[in-house]
Amino acid sequence: MLNDIYNKRIIELAGNIPRLGRLSDPDATATAHSKLCGSTVKVDLKMNGDTVTDFAHDVKACALGQASSSIMASHVVGSTASELRELRETVRKMLKEDGAPPEGKWEEIKFLEPVRDYKARHASTLLTFDAVVDAIGQIEAKAKQPAAAQG
Fold first, then answer.
1. What's a Pfam family this protein contains (predicted)?
2. Which has the closest alpha carbon to 16: 63, 61, 70?
3. Are 97 and 59 in contact (CB under 8 A)?
4. What DSSP character marks residue 102?
5. DSSP string over 15-84
6. In this structure, what CATH number is given to the domain that contains residue 69?
7. Angle between helix 8-15 and helix 63-75 axes, rounded to 10 deg
8. Number of folded domains that form the chain
9. 148 found inside a domain
């Protein structure tokens, strides 16, 4: 039932999103958009080496996109690039392949597990994860460029 995916915890998460706004000097900005529902998440990311040091986001999404963005914002600072790539893959598998939800600091993602039965909602749920991984890729690509090319 659709009410299963909009459970009490999802509504609480969606209504209390931390780190809203934009960073003044991000290392990268990435936007993820769902054509199906029109939801958009734009993230600003700062990293020191492999670790996220600051994060902000602009979330124009349904309750599911808001809830997943809320979880991301609560735990992203201090996370590593490899951890965040693995997280995106874990959430994708949870939704699309009946995989288990993540554990540890990301365990609240389990509240999004009922979304697996609603394919049309997968894209909005994954937006924040896709945007963060995109931003990490941008930062890593810049780091590999010769200093003269970085301007």
1. NifU_N
2. 70
3. no
4. P
5. H--SSBS--SS-SEEEEEE-TTT--EEEEEEEEETTEEEEEEEEEE--HHHHHHHHHHHHH-TT-BHHHH
6. 3.90.1010.10
7. 70
8. 1
9. no
pTM: 0.94
In a domain? residue 72: yes
Q: Which two tokens stand for residue 60?
A: 């124009």
For residue 151, what is the DSSP state?
Answer: -
Q: What is the largest CA-CA distance in the chain?
A: 56
Q: Which domain holds residue 115?
A: 1-142
Q: How many CA atoms within 13 Å lie on the side-chain side of 113?
A: 12
Rounded CA separation 151/148 (Å): 6
Look at residues 74, 71, 63, 77 and name the one whose alpha carbon lies nearest to residue 90.
71
Question: Residue type at 90?
Answer: T
pLDDT digits (tens, 9 = 90+) for 57-112: 999 999 999 999 999 999 999 999 999 999 999 999 999 999 999 999 999 999 99
Is residue 147, in this structure, part of any structural domain at all? no
- What integer pLDDT is reported at residue 4 of this predicted model? 75
